[in-house]
Amino acid sequence: MLIRFVEDIYADFLFDCYIANQHLTDEDWHYYGREEHHIELPEREGGVLTPLNSQPLTTYQHWIAGVLQSEVLGKCCFACVPKGVLPAMFEMLRDKWQREHCKERFAQSGHKISNRGKMWITDGVEQKLIHRSETIPAGWVKGRLPHTEETRRKLSEKGKGRPITEETRAKLRARPNNWVGRKHSEESKNKMSISAKNRRR
Questions:
Q1: For residues 14 and 8, what is the distance between their CA atoms, to the nearest angstrom?
Q2: Tens digit of each residue's pLDDT (9 = 90 or more) over 99-154
Q3: How far apart are alpha carbons 86 and 89 in whole angstroms?
Q4: In angstroms, how far is the first alpha carbon of the chain from the final one?
Q5: What are the residue boundaries of the structural domains of the chain, listed by start?
Q6: Nearest 5 degrees, angle CA 37-CA 81-CA 69?
């Protein structure tokens, strides 16, 4: 029922755009941007621009259409929709399908899904990861719980005795120090001096 409702919104939006865009002049199209939207099958899925699968939209209309189409088809159908330019509901959907696309891409590449774009929060007893776009619940703050003594001991034991091969040692010794032989300019010295004075105040 919900999918059907979203399909209706998507279809109504495209129809409203069709009616509104009838009044646009060539100058208007140049100003707002003209892009061809794949109505049924998105370009990412191999869709081609045929009379039944294309509709001219302004750039902004195309962003909203891509987000709605993603919700209808259950997959990310847009290549690039800027963050923070759409109304709240569409921004929520944009973020949702952008993250889903990133997850799929990482899964296909065989890499682990990173924590990029996420942050740890804690209430002093528990901790969890949330996306940076989410609101921190009442009673929670950014950060993680401190390590327990047992965890610190295990981390310490794990780091002890880690073998370093002679090949690795040789590479470390041969690695050039980019600052050796370099001198700061007078301008750099002045800036660092001013910065240090400001920190001491």
A1: 10
A2: 888 777 766 666 555 566 788 888 888 888 887 777 888 888 888 888 788 888 88
A3: 8
A4: 64
A5: 2-109, 116-148
A6: 45
